[in-house]
Amino acid sequence: MKRFIVLFLLTVALVKCAPYLVHPGSANTADSVAYDALRDAQAVIDTARPELASGALNANLKPLFNTLVKAYDVALPAWKAYHAAALAGATVDLVTLNKDLADLTAALAAFRKGK
Question: Exposed, middle or buried: residue 96 (CB in 10 Å: 0-12, 13-18, 19+)?
């Protein structure tokens, strides 16, 4: 058991030390991280939608799911605008993107917690 704990802690330490790799085509690290957040949320939405429709997930999750979808629908165009502006070298609106991503992250966390 002690070996497992030591190995686990070592793995966590090494993962946290690994540098973040920016996705090809991203304007910068913020652009890449935002893309990751949106991709993760889309994966959860794509998985949960048919599960909710079929009754495999608790119906009480429907409001949390709807909040998640609405947050995604706001964050996606904000990221697209940021991405296009950043690639073009234009002025970017990082404040709006950060707010929308924070809302998306909160909605995603609430949905996951509800599961």
Answer: middle
pTM attached to this predicted model: 0.81
Contact 38, 32 (CB under 8 A): no
| CA dist list (Å): 6 to 13, 14, 16, 17, 39 | 10, 12, 15, 17, 32
Domain total in the chain: 1
Pick from 74, 81, 84: which is nearest to 27 by CA? 84
**Tens-digit pLDDT profile for residues 17-68:** 668 888 899 999 999 999 999 999 999 999 999 999 999 989 899 999 999 9
| Domain range for 61 | 2-114
Distance CA 65, CA 55 (A): 13
